[in-house]
Amino acid sequence: MNSEAARVSTTGRTAKARKTLLGYVPMESPFYAFHPATRLILFIFLGVIPLFIFIPEVNIFLLLINLALLRWGKVDVQRLKIYMPIIFTVAIFMFTVVILAPGRDPSYTPLEVLGITVFYQPVFFTFAAYWRLIAMLFGTILYFSTNRERELLVGLRALRLPFVASYVVGLSIRAAGMFMEDFRIIREAEQARGLDTKAMRFSDQVKLYMMYLIPLFSIALRRANEISNALFARGYTLTGRTSTGQPRQDYIRSTYSYSKRDFVAIVVMVVVFVATGLAQIFFDIFAIEHSPLNILLRQALEIPS
Amino acid sequence: MDPAIVFRDLQWRYEHRKNFALKGINLEIGKNDFIGVVGPNEHGKTTLVSAISGLIPHSYNGIYKGSIEVFGKKVFDSDALELATNVGIVFSDPESQFTAMTVEEELAFGLENMGFELAKIRERIEWAAEITLIQDLLDKSPYDISGGQKQRVAIACVLAMDPPIIIMDEPTSMIDPLGKNLIFEILRRLKEASEHTLIVVEHNVEQLAPLADKMLLMYEGLVDRYLPTKEFFADPSYLQARGVLAPESTEFVQWLIAEKALPASIDLPLDLAGGIEATHQALQRRSSS
After folding, report:
1. Global confidence as pTM
2. Domain check: are B187 and B112 in the same one?
3. What is the pLDDT, as a whole number, of residue A15?
């Protein structure tokens, strides 16, 4: 029985989420009223716009917008817990590096915190960079929590990415999903034969992970060969030539259509994106120096700007 | 009538292998025939059908001698598109043949490659989905359905392209009994429609034999036997020596003949219904004597 059906039968209720290769998407969501191209543009918008913004408060605001959109999109927020380790690990890694290896600059202001000397400028810069990264990460989470792989491919093709390139993207996503599935099967097979990884030393666990690579890559190579055969058997040619001589149609793309709301959303996103980019490039509006928190801390700590 | 497929002394050796997998195949397969292919593992069944579909020599390296013609055109000289138009193949592992993200896309892919109009693609998808009973699965991911459903999707993908020759290489080897029954039900419908040449490699002789017009035994890289189904199963000990078992009803009736409970002239049954009928006749003979 497939996992989706299992969810329905064991709970006795209709499933609220649909499994994809990379996670889950809600069965119903207001996002689905938009064309996949609009949703892809939203992803690009939310993913790229933090790159123009160095003010952490603005990126935190963007993060809140992402969270609001996740809620509006009926995404099961409980599932987002799986990203918590990444969020904390990135923070620990970034701040550990900047505290232990801040770099040398005479303009840096040393501060004594719990008996450790830290430098204000690199720490605040890291703080700003961290929130930029998290805002971008949640833009990606929002996209993959509200779009299936099919919609990604339709979006890419609608944005004029060649069919071959979009197909490679699709196969890559498929490969990633199947790689994880194969990994899970190998792990379960080992556990079924009595392997207790919890009882192993860390070094042995590392060795074990290295050993997984051999079967995983051999399976991946075999699958690549099988997919190649499948493409051959379905008459796929890289040139896009068809047996009737007619241009290749895109059936799945034809099942989606644009509406007024798509055009409005795209125009709003493009305008905000261009305005943000220009404001930063020409007027430096989103520079870290303009961060209210930065200004407040500098005043409190008497650090010259 | 011209044959659909003609093998002329076909020999094939895979790269880095010592022996030829096919050692000189001479064979003719008629249009709209249903051919069951049996034989022990590693004796050339999959290689034979891969050669018809063109995967050999186009996707594998090796030594290729002789020729195969599909509707008069040599496979060696045909490209992927020409071959896919004439020959559809369903592999034993359904998942290995999926390349798309939804079942509907999967079905549309081959049709797009052929260059059909959108309306025609839609029509073919609906038709293939109806025959294979997968209408409810079109919006699902092909990786998130059961094994039997996956295999039906794989068959639908080939059917949608409507090639005159359909090959199935052990289509039921990875699915449960109910799933197997559905696959054979689809094969039965296809045979009844009599619009395709069907070549089915299968170990499940019980369900294959009642459908097949002819049976082909591959043994040590050669066509050991290629006969109408009833003649093929007439000598069970010969088949058994080559790792193939006749349907149980056929074997049972042959035992009744050996025990003189039935005359040797009786028509050998290939399915359970035929076996029951023959048993009735044997009982009547005994009660009347």
Report:
1. 0.80
2. yes
3. 64
The length of chain A is 305
Give chain B's domain count: 2
Query: Does residue B150 sit in the same domain as residue B193?
Result: yes
Based on the fold, state whether residues B225 and B274 are members of the same structural domain.
no
ipTM here: 0.81
Cα–Cα distance for residue pair A94/A187, rounded to 1 Å? 31
Tell me what percent of the residues of chain A surpass a pLDDT of 70: 94
Q: Which domain holds residue B264?
A: 247-289
Query: Do residue B280 and residue B168 come from a single domain?
Result: no
A13 pLDDT band (50/70/90 cuts)? low
Check CB contact under 8 Å for A148 and B110: no
pLDDT confidence of residue A284: 94
Name chain B contacts of A21, Cβ cutoff 8 Å: 101, 141, 143
Could B96 and A230 be called an inter-chain contact, meaning their C-beta atoms sit closer than 8 Å? yes
B151, B287: one domain: no
Res. A44 pLDDT band, cuts 50 70 90? very high
Predicted confidence band of residue B1 (pLDDT cuts 50, 70, 90): low
In this structure, are B270 and B150 located in the same domain?
no
Q: What is the pLDDT of residues A141-179, one digit of tens each?
A: 999 999 988 899 999 999 989 888 888 888 888 888 788
**Contacting residues for B171 by C-beta, under 8 A, at least 6 apart:** B90, B92, B151, B154, B155, B183, B200, B202
Q: Which residue of B has its CA nearest to A181?
A: B143
Question: Tokens 């068959």 — which residue?
Answer: B155
Pair B134, B211 in one domain: yes
φ/ψ (deg, to 5) at A154: -65, -45
Give the integer Cα–Cα distance in Å for A116 and A101.
Answer: 13
Q: State whether B282 and B154 are in the same domain.
A: no
> Does A217 lie at the interface with B, CB-CB under 8 angstroms?
no
Any B CB within 8 A of A247 CB: yes
Find residue A17's DSSP bridge partners.
A26
